[in-house]
Amino acid sequence: MAAFPHSPNQTFRRLRGRNSPAEFAGMVRRAAKEIGETVSCDARYIGRVESGEIRCPNYAYERVFLHMFPGLTLADLGFSPREAVRGRSAQRSAPFTHKESDVLRRAFMAGGSATVAAATIGFTLLGDTRRPPSRAGESEAAAVEEAVRQIRLLDDRHGADALYRKAAEPLRTAYALLDAGATRQSTEDRLHAGAGELAISVGWLAHDSGRFDDARSHYAEALATARVAGDAGLEAHAFSNMAFLARDCGRPRESVRAAQAGRRAARSLGSPRLLSLLALREAGGWAGLADRKACEEALTRAHTEFSRGAAAADPEWMSFFGEAELESLESRCWAALGEHARAARHARRAADLQDPHFARNVALYTAELADDLARAGAPDEAAWAGGRVLDLLTEVQSTRIRSMLSGTARALVPHQRSPRVAAFLTRHATA
User: Long-range contact list for 263-269, CB < 8 A, 24+ apart?
Assistant: First the structure.
């Protein structure tokens, strides 16, 4: 596949100023939140803009950039007119359009066939997914990366249950592309990284929807891909999710070992936030083993690394990991150690800190809060929090959250003489 020449966007580079690409990407994500948009901007995207590979941003990015630089037009930002990049060659190198994202969301939420989903979930540019190109090029690599972003976006908003089955076909296509080979080594490296991240994303959908064996298989596939490619970042990500899954499956020692393996892989990557998350994964395993001292030591490491702040080397997939997630993961440690009142304080803080746009996480943190309150002897507060989760479950589909809420309901049965508890139990049973 022929490459298309690009003219660097020097204007956009000047607007970035002294910020690193990763720092500027963070500014873009924050600006998006201010206007209710969600974009998966990272240092690589900024690099593609500045190199001229992205000649005109999609509609979501356009709105964000114009919000960041009021009074300027796309031309003032160094972009080409949209009508000038509508030809076939431009479409193959440009990011997915707002219209295509809408098609994807409708296909997922309407429960369309696997064939429809495969043609829309980030693979619009691939054509017939049953017959991928004989040699993958840059547009195919970009499509794999976009599939990962779209899965994460939809999971944040809707939860995993409606997405898992429909995400399997694009994953098969990604690995078929890897097997076919790429036009150049840089493209093959992108395909390895993209396919591995896609395997983790699909594994997470299985994990969150209670399909633990499937999740384990997908995470192992991602780990194998990472090791074949020599990709330490992907390896650390796979081990992080494997540690999380082992904790949820009741295998705390395996959780500890996976988290420690992830830490070894991540040691040279220069991302304190990644080390913080892996320390939290390890702390969760130690809590499951009832080793309070080791858990507290891991929690201390997690807070120390987190306090170092964001870094240019932070991977794109860690956009979910902020103070709210840190509080949530710590709350799970104290809950596992039987300190439910302390766990509730952290869970409440997690729910308060979480951006409401991420509905699944708000529901998760609130469900954790309800369970902790029920077990800490605060049944009325637990019932209130449980009712809030039921409100959120009208738009979020997550077996994990529903299972957690069912456990809370069982814990509240002895307190059903309370009118608030009775009302929650009745509503839960109906739901």
Answer: 263/236, 265/232, 265/233, 265/235, 265/236, 265/239, 266/232, 266/233, 266/236, 268/232, 269/232, 269/233, 269/236, 269/313
Tell the burial category of 48 from Cβ atoms under 10 Å away from its Cβ (0-12, 13-18, 19+). Answer: middle
pLDDT in tens, the chain (431 residues): 334 446 889 999 888 888 888 889 889 988 888 887 777 788 888 988 988 888 888 877 888 999 899 888 889 999 988 666 544 333 333 343 444 444 334 433 343 333 333 334 443 433 344 455 567 777 788 888 888 877 777 765 655 566 777 777 788 888 888 888 887 888 888 889 999 999 999 999 999 888 999 999 999 999 999 999 999 999 999 999 999 999 999 999 999 999 999 999 999 999 999 999 999 999 999 999 999 999 999 999 999 999 999 888 998 888 889 899 999 999 999 999 999 999 999 999 999 998 776 788 899 999 999 999 999 999 999 999 999 999 998 888 788 899 999 999 999 999 999 999 999 999 999 98
Report the distance separating Cα 83 and Cα 144, nearest Å.
Answer: 26
Count CB neighbours of 323 within 10 A: 12
The pTM score is 0.70
Distance CA 2, CA 8 (A): 19
Give me the helices (H) in 356-418, please. Answer: 359-375, 379-392, 399-412
Separation CA 265–CA 267 (nearest Å) = 6
Q: Which of 16, 22, 30, 29 is nearest to 311 (CA)?
A: 22
